[in-house]
Amino acid sequence: MSDLQEVGRYASHAEAVEDGLVVLAMGEAYWMFPDEGGYVLCVQESVREAVVLELAEVSRLRSRGRGWSIQRGDFVVQRVGILSFWVYGLILVGVFLAQWFGSVPITEDGRLDALVMVRENQWWRAVTALTLHGDVGHLVGNLAAGAGFGFWLARYLGAAWGWTLILLCGVFGNVLTALLYYPNPHLSIGASTAVFAALGLLTGFGWYHSRGGSRKGHSIPEWILPILAGLTLLGMLGAGGPRTDLIAHLCGFGSGLVVSVLVSYLPWSLPTSRSRRWIGWLPLAIIAIAWTFALS
């Protein structure tokens, strides 16, 4: 491996891996070696100059505290903490316990009810229904899938914007579901609409970042691969079981897909990390306000 050239030295393994992901995003390989209490990142000599320039640009963006900008070739992997996942779990578990052990019939007050939503304008049910679940299996499935898709979306957008878009697209999906079923009666609960909205967001952003190219040795365009992957997961996870609300899953997935593409083509970037504090509170505020209406 004498043709390897050093492109960076790092104090921690996590920092080295993070820049290694940047190299992988360029379609190149990297090698990492422990050295004097730290780590050295190396690439092949033929690509060293391009990698050094890319890493320097990524470092510049990080130092500016710049938010995530959806530009092809301008992807910065975001660091994801565990706090937002604890909050996600606590909300779903807390509401579930209130459903089964509380004195107030919150399931009836908060579930998606197409007739009531449209006729009585109780659109806050599109939010509250996402936090309700029918049994432990339903809850655990949405906890696991939501955390999984949420993690990868947070790697793109940061946790604040990731969870905000997941919630908003889940709400859009529930609203669309109610409108499609109306004037027929339809009741549903569960975070799965938001889970499939997250899958739609990942599919759309993946398509955007891979558009306009093709893999070496393959005739299939790169942009079609995220679409196929997203549709495959949608079919595997969202279309089975007698209690599965396929329309809601499709509406959630479609909402995420459309929003991700629209956001990708915005002429301006999402707000920077300096604004993420208040953005991170937005999902909690939306849920709290919706439940205030539900219980009033």
UniProtKB/TrEMBL annotation:
Domain Peptidase S54 rhomboid: 121-264
Organism per entry: Puniceicoccus vermicola
Protein location: Membrane
The protein's name: Rhomboid family intramembrane serine protease
Lineage of producing organism: Bacteria, Pseudomonadati, Verrucomicrobiota, Opitutia, Puniceicoccales
Chief location: membrane
GO biological process: proteolysis
GO cellular component labels: membrane
Transmembrane segments: 80-101, 161-182, 188-208, 220-240, 246-266, 278-295
Pfam families assigned: Rhomboid (PF01694)
Membrane topology qualifier: Multi-pass membrane protein
Tagged with keyword Transmembrane helix: yes
